[in-house]
Specification:
226 residues; alpha/beta; six-stranded parallel β-sheet; three-stranded mixed β-sheet; 8 helices; 11 strands
């Protein structure tokens, strides 16, 4: 079987398409055939944050893979959503349900945006101090793309104050996947796909994704349709 592999850190060009051994499941495992995947840093933490009806949610980087998911899930849970993105993506973010959409290049949302029950920073570009300014005293900050320093600051904030900071990886379960499937089947969640590449275009896909301007997901087609 073919797989995209890399043996050194670096730009997208370190990725190589190679033939690898097909994995053999153990007695307590199952083998799943993957038809497609995505190039993103997606992580789902809204259920962990217990977003609920009438809460105010702020999503920074609302047009990306994590952002478009965060906006739709927050709306599904009944929250009032303020979304931040570029001017080119405002209409798309409105279409997926955001109540208010601001342009990060024009609107001073730090001074004029108010405070929120939940702040979701999806792209690691909004300073930690600004995130705190946007957060209510008992609010929750979700850093889906946090580096080590922000994870450390988040841990200190959660321990010493009333605010809670959620960072790091999350383990998806079968129930999580079934839950998302039901949302999609019932029309509550729409997959936003910017571009689709084949597996042998993996370098080009990563190169495009790293530009930081994709709308939603960049999909990788693993198995071609018959």
């Amino acid at each position: 079987m073919k797989a995209a592999v890399y043996y050194a850190y670096g730009p997208p060009e370190v990725l190589q398409l190679q033939e690898v051994k097909k994995p053999v499941p153990k007695d307590n495992e199952v083998q799943i055939r993957i038809f497609s995947t995505a190039v993103n840093s997606a992580d789902w933490r809204l259920r962990k944050a217990k977003v609920g009806s009438r809460q105010k949610v702020f999503v920074y980087g609302a047009s990306g893979a994590v952002g478009t998911a965060a906006v739709q899930l927050a709306k599904y849970f009944g929250a009032e959503v303020t979304a931040i993105c570029s001017s080119a993506d405002i209409e798309m973010v409105k279409l997926i349900g955001a109540d208010r959409v601001l342009d990060y290049t024009k609107d001073d949302f730090i001074k004029n945006g108010g405070t929120y029950d939940v702040v979701i920073e999806t792209v690691d570009k909004l300073p930690y101090s600004d995130c705190m300014k946007l957060l209510k005293k008992n609010g929750i900050l979700i850093l889906s793309a946090a580096g080590f320093s922000q994870m450390l600051r988040g841990a200190v904030t959660s321990i010493t104050g009333k605010r809670k900071v959620i960072t790091g990886g999350t383990k998806e379960t079968a129930d999580d996947m079934q839950y998302v499937k039901e949302l999609i089947d019932n029309g509550f969640y729409k997959q936003v796909i910017d571009r689709t590449y084949t597996l042998d275009q993996i370098v080009e896909a990563h190169r495009y994704g790293e530009q930081g301007h994709k709308k939603g997901n960049v999909a990788i087609r693993i198995i071609e349709s018959d």
